[in-house]
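Hello, quick one for you while I still have it in my head. A protein chain has come my way and I'm curious about its shape. I'm sending you its amino acid sequence along with the backbone structure tokens. I'd be grateful if you could look everything over and explain what you see. Here's the protein in full, and shout if anything looks odd to you:
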Amino acid sequence: MNYRTLGRTGVQVSCLCLGTSSFGREVDEGAVAAMFHRSREVGINFFDTSNVYYGGRSEEILGKLIADCRDEIVLTSKVGFPAGEDVNARGLSRRHIMQSIEGSLRRLGTDRLDFYFLHTFDPNTPIEEPLRALDDLVHQGKILYPAVSNWAAWQIATALGISARECLARFECIQPMYSLVKRQAEVEVLPLAQAEQMGVISYGPLGAGLLTGKYGTTRRPKDGRLLWDPVYKSRYGDPAYYEIAERFTEHAREHSLHPATLAVAWVMSHPAITAPIIGARNVEQLEASLAALNVPMTLEWRAKISALSIEPPPATDRSEEKSGIFYSGGKSA
């Protein structure tokens, strides 16, 4: 296992992070325990969860598993998405953050989180509000580092400016969606992370299973989140994604690799990525992702794989500059 420094924190984390969104929902506790112990066996010390994963059940299960190795584990959780029926059991108000952290700590059986993510942007709450709440939690020792997930680059940059101005603990880690079919993070989020020396643990490297070899333009499995989960059906509904998946699967087979292995290796090879978050429903599925640790991804190979996908346009839409074409004189716009 290779370990990487997460941003400027000095914390060493495994180059793969085990996600727990399926714990307690799609995976029973026996299979969860097997995956956890296999992850630890290969050297994974980084685990990601959330207060909303299966109503907090994911945190409870993970808490039991880390009980005898908590100090060896780098642990995250999140706040922001609806965690109950109450009108205030959601969002990024100070009230909700302070209540949510207590529930997460109790379920995880720990006295602190290493990284605490704002799980979503809250348009109804000024950015200063959650930043001050996170700073207070740092001073209380309940979290070590604030972090953020699913925010746009401008929102993150605004928060960094406020934190610097107000002398608040700043975001040290970003968690964006990133895979061969979802590359928007390349445009601004990942460059921002590199410029500000922030760690990045990206989620969805397999595109909810789209990049595992089970899907193509005319091929579908009998079961899978893309078939029954409305969130994933919407997120990955574009027919172009299935064309990419088909091309990618063929490329992986030409290199005698499981598509899931190559998908994770491609994400892991981006210079801004600290650790992709991997997930599975059983040890067999997990092994395919763990095998990415042994893929010798080169810049040239990464470029070939990237060419199978659709590259997002640059933030300014000035694609000519990316090609090295500039005006030689006269007026420019």
The two ends are 49 Å apart (CA to CA). The domain at 11-175 is CATH 3.20.20.100 (TIM Barrel). The chain has a mean pLDDT of 95. The CA atoms of residues 30 and 282 lie 10 Å apart.
